[in-house]
Amino acid sequence: METRYATNPEAIRHHSTEQLREEFLVEELFVPGEVLLTYTHNDRMIFGGVTPTTSTLEIILTKELGVDYFLERRELGVINIGGPGSISIDGQEEEMKKQDGYYIGKETKQVLFKSDDASNPAKFYCVSVPAHKVYPNVKISIDAITPMETGEPKTLNERKIYQYVHPNVCESCQLQMGYTILAEGSSWNTMPCHTHERRMETYLYFDMDPDTRVFHFMGKPDETKHLVVANEQAVISPSWSIHTGVATADYTFIWAMCGENITYTDMDMVAMDQLK
Fold first, then answer.
1. Binding site, annotated residues
2. What share of the chain is helix, strand, coil (3-state, %, to 5)?
3. Which GO terms describe its molecular function (predicted)?
4. Which tens digits make up the pLDDT trace of 47-89?
């Protein structure tokens, strides 16, 4: 597990492209047969990919977190973006096709990840945050979610937002997690942009062709920066930063948030004339 420390917005004022990428971009999350995680000190979120092939995989973090087992004091959200697989939660196994998700509560002792076909492995995107209360484990299928439709074609931001770990779907301590799919011909996500001082966020961009790139904009509204993001790469977005992007072709992304509240609409909108 790689550690990324929290950053003051003033510290990035003179960052080079390489420095920005080292602090905020995670370039590799899904490697066959491996668990790759990043621990950001922004609200102590752990996120990354579990990609089982011929063997079952498990996230084992004890010494790193000062606990006896991974979810002793944490909750976990999982969404499969790869081939069909399964997840076993304290001995109860569930099938997990692409776009299936799971909320797994605090004090769950064992979570095992498995692929049905090693040549087409499942890719489990996992996000874990500190938790103070036990909530029930809930399987979440995209087929059972009524998406929130927003944006419009003339502003190139028409999209459907599928809320997985969200009060409308299941209870959680502070984790929120969802899946956004842009309509054909739309390329902007979350524009007009916003910040939310009360929550940080991570973005995983995927379902992109090899040559497609997302230009992810970050930084303070009056001093923006950007990261060029390829398929299956993720961005850490601190609470003080805007987070919006535009791409050269179709893409999908998973957003995950944690912090002071779980009110999805609690955000500070940025007027277009404030962006610089």
1. 194, 196, 201, 243
2. 10, 45, 45
3. 4-deoxy-L-threo-5-hexosulose-uronate ketol-isomerase activity; zinc ion binding
4. 999 999 999 999 999 999 999 999 999 999 999 999 999 999 9
